[in-house]
Amino acid sequence: MSIFSNQALKNEHALITGATGGIGAATAKTLAGMRAAVTITGRNEEKLENVAEDIRSTHPDANICKQLADLGKDSDRETLVEQAEKACGPITLLVNNAGIAGGSTVDELTKDKLESIMDINYTSTVLLTQLVYKKMLKKKRGAIVNVSSLSGLRGTHGNTAYAGSKFALIGFTQSMAVEAIEHGIRVNAVCPGWVDTAMGQQSVENKAARTGTSVEELLQSSVPSGRMSEPEEVANTIAFLLTDAAANIVGESVKISGGTVMR
Ligand SMILES: NC(=O)c1ccc[n+]([C@@H]2O[C@H](COP(=O)([O-])OP(=O)(O)OC[C@H]3O[C@@H](n4cnc5c(N)ncnc54)[C@H](OP(=O)(O)O)[C@@H]3O)[C@@H](O)[C@H]2O)c1
């Protein structure tokens, strides 16, 4: 059930990356339900179309722009922002959600793997944000949410590349937040624990296999609430941070993890 007014983001235009994935699709639907125009982007055309159809099935009047983009490519990022603004007007909200998992223990980590994770989860995110931010600066308004992770707050076994990229995203969030707020633009991060998406299922299954336990036992023993978060629960937190209800929340890293990490 949504706690948000169906007008809360009227006249806003949200760009959501990774919208073909679990958290991104749920976020796009939630923001469309609050009347934001949404630009959804990912690399998989069929999934992008399915997400748009799903949003329209619940919100028939939704204003949706679809744009394929590989965020690791400079030209794709530039085209994405250009096409989004052409179709739906100035971007006022940005959700940096695209990301990849993977990696290995330090002794087996390859340079290619390290660079690909840092590129998508950090460098490309910063560069896309820079493009959008320069446009937001002209209007002196906007809000940005970066999707980091509990792995952006504490390291875990076999997670060097991913955790490093998500820690970096928190550093970026905090540094940019103090610059951007001078111009009326807010930047925050969310830090989900395990979320019930393809990525989250893989992660919990890997850990269960490594520690010789079942997924159910692992969730019971390591998550105080005893379960993964739903993508919609992360989407609701992102949505809150994008609204004026969060007007004085700046540079924060909000956890959605059923109590997994208490500090
Ligand atoms: N699920 C969890 O347990 C969990 C926990 C903490 C944080 N997170 C973070 O939450 C975010 C979303 O995760 P999710 O669980 O929804 O994952 P997901 O279902 O695997 O979705 C990942 C998304 O990222 C996009 N993406 C990956 N590489 C890309 C690239 N080079 N260019 C453009 N888009 C790219 C994918 O697009 P295509 O498939 O179209 O290529 C997809 O839309 C990620 O940043 C992840 O690190 C997830």
UniProtKB/TrEMBL annotation:
InterPro entries for the chain: KR_dom, NAD(P)-bd_dom_sf, Sc_DH/Rdtase_CS, SDR, SDR_fam
Residue ranges of every copy of the Ketoreductase domain listed in the record: 12-184
CDD domains tied to this protein: SDR_c (cd05233)
Classification via PANTHER family: 3-OXOACYL-(ACYL-CARRIER-PROTEIN) REDUCTASE, 3-OXOACYL-[ACYL-CARRIER-PROTEIN] REDUCTASE FABG
Similarity comment: Belongs to the short-chain dehydrogenases/reductases (SDR) family.
Protein name per Swiss-Prot or TrEMBL: SDR family oxidoreductase
The species this protein was found in: Virgibacillus halodenitrificans (Bacillus halodenitrificans)
